[in-house]
Design goal:
By secondary structure, the protein is an all-alpha fold. It has 7 helices and no strands.
């Protein structure tokens, strides 16, 4: 039992480390799950074919349209220049030093308005990227800023 928990924690740390280093999740998730399976003592091949792959296929099947249309919308906002236009307007209203607050408020309004957080992430990323570029803030803070808008606590 304790070895299984150690395996879960180790695989989670591995997944976080690989994601932070830029390894795609489609590669990092199977590696991290293999570590958890090795620590649990379960058969590796059976765990992949009977547990991991059906669960992954179910997740992809359920959420693929949301990811696809959110990504298309985000790309269209970037290509058409709409993200840059909104970023400039928001920057004029709140100032370039308030890019994080502007991203949190805009994301929160969209989330509380009923838009799925997955869609908000795809829509807000091009806006936040432009706001952060103008404010000279590192892009690595964008995911945390967008996630902050969905917690329910005031910014």
């Amino acid at each position: 039992m304790a070895l299984g928990i150690i395996g879960i924690v180790t695989s989670l740390l591995l997944l976080i480390t690989l994601a932070y280093r830029g390894v795609p999740v489609i590669l990092a998730a199977p590696l991290a799950s293999a570590v958890a399976v090795l620590f649990s003592g379960a058969p590796i091949l059976a765990s992949y074919t009977e547990i991991f792959m059906p669960a992954m296929a179910g997740f992809v099947g359920s959420w693929f349209p949301v990811f696809l249309f959110g990504a298309i919308f985000g790309v269209l906002m970037t290509v058409t220049g709409y993200a840059e236009s909104i970023a400039r307007t928001v920057t004029k209203l709140v100032g370039s030093r308030s890019a994080i607050a502007a991203t949190i408020v805009t994301s929160a309004l969209m989330t509380y308005g009923g838009v799925s957080l997955f869609v908000v992430a795809f829509v807000m990323y091009p806006l936040a990227r432009e706001l952060f570029r103008v404010a000279d803030i590192p892009r690595r803070l964008i995911p945390a800023t967008i996630a902050r808008s969905s917690t329910g606590a005031p910014p």
